[in-house]
Amino acid sequence: MGRTVYLFTLALLISLNVQAGVILHEGTYQGKNLYVLNPFAGSGVGFCTFEVTVNDEITTDELNSSAFEIDFTALQIELGGKVEVKIKHKDDCTPKVMNPEVLKPKSTYVISSIKVDKGGVLRWTTNGESGELPFTIEQFRWNKWIKLGQVDGKGTTVSHNYSFKVAPHSGENKYRVKQVDFSRKPRYSPNATFNSPTPNISFTPLKVNKEIIFTSSTMYEIFDQYGNLVKKGADTQINVSNLKKGIYYLNFDNQMESFVKK
Fold first, then answer.
1. Are strands 211-223 and 246-252 parallel, antiparallel or unpaired?
2. I need a labelling partner for 51 at 20 to 30 A (CA). Which of 31, 177, 199, 245 fits?
3. CB 125 within 8 A of CB 135
4. What distances in angstroms separate CA 91 from CA 17, 21, 47, 52, 191, one per listed residue?
5. In 3D, which of 147, 138, 135 has the Cα closest to residue 181?
6. DSSP bridge pairs for 21
7. How far is CA 20 from the centre of its chain?
8. 110-196 fold
9. How many CA atoms lie within 13 A of 183 on its CB side?
10. Among 204, 178, 209, which Cα is nearest to 191's?
């Protein structure tokens, strides 16, 4: 009797140990299903996967085959909805998800309007988002697009309104927003363009020992003669006393000039 109980207990422990592995995939539903390669168990009896749950709900997918599909449509998950997939398998084998990228957020937004209001706030409205991705705000300044900041995307298909406070330079200003998803290819909005009544900014002196003084607060960049960025910021003045002697290139307001550090 004692030996029988021992053997039963040992068999139960072995059985529990075999069914120990869990593969976890999290993301957002993008309208596509997951495909799983499902090898035989290491014992050669039965297939590797024994249970799949999506958001803690057991699926009805057919697991007794060498490959199966996790069908999200049967679970009535909305596009852009959160998804947590658990593939439970025996620990002497490992199933493989063939297309995990389908759960990664994808940039699908459509801009219905984008503009800068009188208060200097960039506002844009989107539809059709299908994943929580940040929007990067950029301004065209000094013959290049520069990053101003980020706003988190809502990630659902309904209409969303966003805003970001900008600091326009004098003259014509141009802004845009972009998203970058798992493909690493940026998707840009149309440009928002407007003319600012802000007066042109100038600076003194052209040959400087200690400080550059602007006529008004402005964003700025300083590059050395080799093209290295040595200072950047936003202010009415710049302390350049720690720069070596030589020629430097100064970007400010909407202008690109040079000065000499004495």
1. antiparallel
2. 31
3. no
4. 7, 5, 12, 15, 54
5. 135
6. 89
7. 34
8. Immunoglobulin-like (2.60.40)
9. 8
10. 178
- Residue 18, SS3 per DSSP: helix
CA distance readout (Å), 143 to 45, 177, 254 = 66, 17, 9
CA 17 vs CA 9, 10, 76, 88, 89: distances in Å: 12, 11, 34, 12, 11
Nearest-angstrom CA–CA distance, 105 and 99: 14
Tokens standing for 148?
A: 């101003």
Amino acid present at 185: K
Tokens of 4: 């029988």
Residue that is written with structure tokens 């998800």 in the block: 97
* Residue 50 token pair: 């024994």
Matching residue, tokens 């084998």: 93
Residue 214 banded pLDDT, cuts 50, 70, 90: very high
Its pTM stands at 0.75
| Domains of the chain by residue range | 2-103, 110-196, 203-261
